[in-house]
Structures are given as C-alpha cells and as structure tokens.
Amino acid sequence: MANTVSALKRVRVTARRTEINRVRRSRLRHQIRAMRRLLDSKNAQAAAAIAPKTFSVIDRSAKWGVIKRNTAARYKSRLTLRLRKLASAG
Fold first, then answer.
1. What CATH class is the domain 27-89?
2. What CA–CA distance (Å, rounded) separates 82 from 19?
3. Sequence ranges of the domains in the chain
4. Rounded CA gap, 80 and 58, in Å?
5. Could you give the CA distance from residue 18 to residue 29 in angstroms, rounded to a whole number?
6. Single pTM value for the model
7. What one-character-per-residue DSSP string does 19-71 give?
8. For the segment 24-52, what is each residue's pLDDT rounded down to a tens digit?
9. Over pLDDT 90: what percentage of the chain?
C-alpha cells in the first residue's frame, strides 16, 4: 500500500475517477444497445428519434477519453449505415 501523502491522494483520486468512468462507459453501452435493438426490430422512426442522443453520448465518451476518437467514429458510422439502410428499405 502507498505510504506517502501524494501516493495516498492518487489512490483516492484514481478510485473516484474509476467510478466516474464506469458510469460513463455503462451509459454509452446502454445507449448503443438501445439503438441497436431498435434497428434490429426494424423500427426506423424510433431509431431515427434516438440517433441524435446516441451520437451525443458517443461523442462525449470520446471527449472524456472513455473510448478513442476513431472508435467513436466507427460506432457512429456503422449505426448511421444501418439506419439509412433501414430507412431506405421502409
């Protein structure tokens, strides 16, 4: 265990940040999962309605460092392609 004042503080800060990042990662995964479920159920209107919120959560996650920028771009690209394909089919 750490025994200097600064090391003890780093342990506390790391624990606090880990919890914050866990919440943010969970929120990201739930939002993406919700959109994927709507896409799988062929509900284009509902998927289009939650797309801006989903993209916002993805962008914020990338900004905070929860995921990398290219990962965020890939998520958004793939969801957009699926949404457009579903919208054009319906």
1. mainly alpha
2. 32
3. 27-89
4. 13
5. 16
6. 0.89
7. HHHHHHHHHHHHHHHHHHHHHHTT-HHHHHHHHHHHHHHHHHHHHHTSS-HHH
8. 999 999 999 999 999 999 999 999 999 99
9. 94
